[in-house]
Amino acid sequence: MSAPSLALALSLLAGAAVAQDFSEGSDAREWGLYGESKAFFAATVVDPLCELTGDCPDNCGDGARQLALLREADGVMVLPLKNGQPAFTGGANELLPFCGQAVEVDGLLITDAELGAQNVYLVQTIRAEGASEWIKANRWTKDWAAANPDAAGQGPWFRRDPRIAAEIAREGWLGLGPEEDAAFLKEWFQ
């Protein structure tokens, strides 16, 4: 291959590897996260296990599975791992009502090779294709409260969540077991 042909081939490969800019039209609120960029795009809400393996339960698993966005512009599968709330939760809750539907989303895209992050999405607003009204992506704590009526009380949800309480009882606050917690507390606070 001649030097000019090699240079052309390398430049085409480099151009394809450059991340697309989806910031145009985005009204997302920046969080100051490393590797974040505003991202507004059209996509189809999919069950990634269904897309990759053919294991396709009804209604994208009815909330038992993580969901993904199959981006219309380039066919890339984007993983919405959080919603517009401060805790890193809720992406699947926001997308489930749109299972299999074409949507537009606005949020933050985290892509950074150094972090190993590729197409991680923080959805802040969503709407069905053709709809005029945006829906704020903030339903996770409402869904949690409805699923955990016995965990009502003061303080943030995670201090009252039965799954978290059971994990702490089993593994301790430090994740090293209750015995290690007791030794730590004795050494540091008595």
Question: What do you see in this structure?
Answer:
The protein is built from six helices and six strands, in the order αβαββαβββααα. With 190 residues, it is an alpha+beta fold. Residues 4-18 have low confidence and may be disordered. 22% of the residues are buried. It folds into two domains: 18-137, OB fold (Dihydrolipoamide Acetyltransferase, E2P) (Beta Barrel), CATH 2.40.50; 148-189, no CATH class.
Assign the CATH class of the largest domain: Mainly Beta
Strand proportion, as a percent range, falls in 15-25%
Whole-angstrom Rg: 21 Å
Shape: globular
What would a concise description of this structure say?
The chain has 6 helices and 6 strands; from the N terminus they run αβαββαβββααα. The protein is α+β, with helices and mostly antiparallel strands and 190 residues long.
